[in-house]
Amino acid sequence: MASLKPLEFKWGIIATGRISGDFVKDLLVDPKTRDVHDVTHKVVAVGSRSVDSAHKFIDRYIGGDKSVNAYGSYQGVYSDPTVDAIYIGTPHTHHYENARDGILAGKHVLCEKPATSNAAELRALLQLAQEHKVFFMEALWTRFQPLTREVRKIADSGVLGEPVLMHADLAFDADIENLPTTHRMLDPKLGGGALLDLGPYPMIWAIVGLYEHPSNSGAGPSSISGAMVKTPITGVDSATSWTLTFAKSGMQAQANLSVSMVIPSNEPGVTIRYRKGVIKVASPIFCPKSFTVEYFDDSGKVWKEEKRNYEYVGSGWHFQADEVARCVREGKLQSGLWGWDKSLLEMETFDEVRKQGGYVFPPGVEKVV
Ligand SMILES: NC(=O)c1ccc[n+]([C@@H]2O[C@H](COP(=O)([O-])OP(=O)(O)OC[C@H]3O[C@@H](n4cnc5c(N)ncnc54)[C@H](OP(=O)(O)O)[C@@H]3O)[C@@H](O)[C@H]2O)c1
Question: Which of 76, 260, 287, 322 is the most buried (most CB within 10 A)?
């Protein structure tokens, strides 16, 4: 096969908070260090509510590069003709409006998790992306990491048989008693709480482990049931558990998922139990560095155990950036690895679990209902 000329993909960054910095640090890691030779990344614009903050961000993360355009508004980035794609690093209650404005300006979009505040907002965005022929993807970075791809490969090979039961947990002690109530984790006006902030990660593993498994044939869950613990501080969920049952397509399997922002994570973070073995993925489940596979003999005893470890330069956010650049080059509107159906499944699940848990956002938070 003839080798492709490396594509220099040009990013505009929306918001100068914590995750935007992490993402940009990874964007600037030489792709060759992860054996990527067909794309490179360049940040050409940064937008913030304050131009001073945009300049500080460029100084801190992009070596003060004077060629990067600094804007005191997000609109400046949407309108910048040098930008191929925008990366949205605002709180999720802002994702719908930010992505909508970017799409209307003809930009491709990589939007932080969770994609939106609810499924209706996401459906509206996907419709717009379709109409304007731009790429849109939720930044579910874990799906693109080499470890996740390998887990999927082993499951697909059939050596472990069908999945039956899995558990995935993401928890951390956010010290919520001492957080300002305006922090995005606690503020209901920013869609705060454990489910929307941490929930995308147990969901990505349920999707990889069950939804994507060949024996499921792409069917959604046959039932979703959830329960929430609400903190008296602001009324958002401090912990949530939910179960997805997959029984529509011949598969008979369940995912038990949990999140908490008051205790540390469990180990292993993900356990996927198949008829002929188990995959155990180490915490933290958003960026695990190892997993083990146990193979069962006919009596159900472990006869072989394998451990795989992963190391790379950077923190793991760059793999999703490579995916965006490749998809755009190929004229795709969505990724084959983390497509629109998966983000929709995630947002529909969150809507249902919030409904069952009695968590209603304050008026005005949801821009589309
Ligand atoms: N993938 C991951 O590993 C990961 C990790 C953490 C967070 N996230 C996701 O990334 C998003 C941002 O999280 P973060 O931790 O980076 O938050 P953050 O540090 O609070 O930054 C959010 C930024 O959004 C902008 N913003 C616009 N309107 C805002 C408002 N009303 N309140 C607060 N900020 C506002 C601000 O940037 P300007 O002042 O520059 O406009 C702010 O710095 C969330 O969707 C979160 O779930 C993902």
Answer: 260
